[in-house]
Design brief:
- The chain is mainly alpha-helical.
- Helix content is 56%, strand content 11%.
- It is built from three helices and four strands.
- The strands form two sheets. It has a two-stranded antiparallel sheet. Strands 3-4 form a two-stranded antiparallel sheet.
- α2 packs across α3.
- The chain is flat, with a radius of gyration of 22 Å.
Length: 126
C-alpha cells in the first residue's frame, strides 16, 4: 500500500510500507533485513580490526588466537517478521506517548522535545 503526502516544498513524497495479515501497516521485511545486514557487516569489520590489533599485541604468546570463526550472520524469515512487528509496536507506542505529552502542553504537533521526554521510560519498558 502506498501513502502519499506533501513535503515542506510542496512536492509529492511517496511512502511505501508493508501490510501484515490483519492489514495493519508494518515495516518492509527487506528494509529491516538490509539494516540488520549493514549492522552485522560493520560489526564484523570492527571485530576483524580488533583481532588484528590483538594478534599483533600477543604474538609472543603460544596458542593465542581468535576463538570465533568468521561466518556470515543471518536471520530467517520468521525472525525478520517478528523484528518488523516489534519495531512497529515500538514506534506506535513512542508516537502515542509523545502525543500525550504534546497534548498536555497544549500543542498539536509532536516535536523532538516530546520524544526526548518519553524516550527513557519507553526504552525501559521495552
Amino acid at each position: 500500500m502506498e501513502k502519499k503526502g506533501r513535503g515542506k516544498t510542496g512536492e509529492r513524497n511517496r511512502f511505501t510500507f508493508a501490510m501484515d495479515d490483519d492489514n495493519t501497516p508494518t515495516f518492509e521485511p527487506d528494509l529491516i533485513r538490509a539494516i540488520f545486514k549493514h549492522i552485522w557487516t560493520r560489526k564484523a569489520q570492527e571485530r576483524e580490526r580488533d583481532e588484528i590489533q590483538n594478534t599483533e599485541a600477543v604474538e609472543s604468546e603460544v596458542g593465542a588466537g581468535p576463538s570465533k570463526k568468521n561466518r556470515p550472520t543471518s536471520a530467517n524469515a520468521n525472525a525478520i517478521k517478528l523484528s518488523c512487528e516489534l519495531l512497529r509496536i515500538f514506534v506506535t507506542e513512542a508516537v502515542q506517548r509523545a502525543s500525550t505529552v504534546a497534548e498536555a502542553e497544549g500543542g498539536t504537533k509532536i516535536e523532538a522535545t516530546h520524544l526526548e521526554r518519553i524516550l527513557p521510560q519507553l526504552l525501559l519498558d521495552f
